[in-house]
Amino acid sequence: MSRVLRFAPLAILVLLIAGLVWRLATPVDTDVHSRLEGQPVPAFALPAIVPGKPGLSSTDLASGRPRLLNVFASWCVPCVTEVGVLRQLQARGITVDGVAVRDRAPDLSAFLARNGDPYERIGSDPESRVQIDLGSSGVPESFVVDGRGIIRYQHIGPIEASEVPMILAELEKAK
């Protein structure tokens, strides 16, 4: 057997690995584009989940001023850190509404007592129907909704402190 044939499988393996490493290092498109940006918030009416705090409906989002709609859950680890950022936004006059996904009232009340409560309204979405209608694939996710109830921006994942200026700019554009 010739030397070239003996090393052919090894050469093919090295080329395959090099191709895979190159492809993983340069993804095609890292931007996730929302299909609902520019569209009205899907119609929904969610009951309250926390005592003393109203539920949430799509008509509440057409209040005449921009709002931040946050899809979250008490069992979501990244949501814990995001609550602090949402409280910063609330302190700047931003109205934050929440959709609690697959959550229980006692768990959510404990979560808010432990981490703070930036929400004006929280609706209970026990079967993730509203979450799915919004095009949200996980928690947390946030949506900038203009005063007419139109989705202007979708943020996937937790909002980090470094992203507050960008979120404020998106809210400003939604006016």
Describe this structure in words.
The structure is a single chain. The chain has 175 residues and is an alpha/beta fold. The protein has a single domain (45-173), classed as Glutaredoxin, CATH 3.40.30.10. The chain is 37% helix and 20% strand. It has five helices and seven strands, in the order αβββαβαβαββα. The chain has helices at residues 3-25, 77-91, 105-115, 129-133, 164-173; strands spanning 45-46, 56-57, 67-72, 95-101, 119-125, 141-145, 151-156. It has a five-stranded mixed beta sheet with strand order 5-4-3-6-7. Strand 3, helix 2 (77-91) and strand 4 form a beta-alpha-beta unit. The longest helix has 23 residues, at 3-25.
Question: What is the topological layout?
Answer:
Elements: H1 3-25, E1 45-46, E2 56-57, E3 67-72, H2 77-91, E4 95-101, H3 105-115, E5 119-125, H4 129-133, E6 141-145, E7 151-156, H5 164-173
Parallel strand pairs: 3-4, 4-5
Antiparallel strand pairs: 1-2, 3-6, 6-7
Highlighted features:
175 residues; 5 helices; alpha/beta; five-stranded mixed sheet; Glutaredoxin; two-stranded antiparallel ribbon; 7 strands
- Total individual domains: 1
Order of helices and strands: HEEEHEHEHEEH
Per CATH, the architecture is 3-Layer(aba) Sandwich
Give the number of helices: 5
Q: What structural class do the secondary elements suggest?
A: alpha/beta
Trace the largest sheet across and list its strands: 5-4-3-6-7
Unreliably modeled segments: none
Tally the beta strands.
Answer: 7
What is the global morphology?
Answer: elongated
The CATH fourth-level homologous superfamily: Glutaredoxin
Q: Measured on Cα atoms, how large is the radius of gyration?
A: 22 Å
Q: Which fold name corresponds to the CATH topology?
A: Glutaredoxin
CATH class: Alpha Beta
Helix content: 25-40%
Strand content: 15-25%
Mean pLDDT: 91
Task: State the major sheet.
Answer: 5 strands, mixed
Report, as a whole number of angstroms, the end-to-end distance. Answer: 75 Å
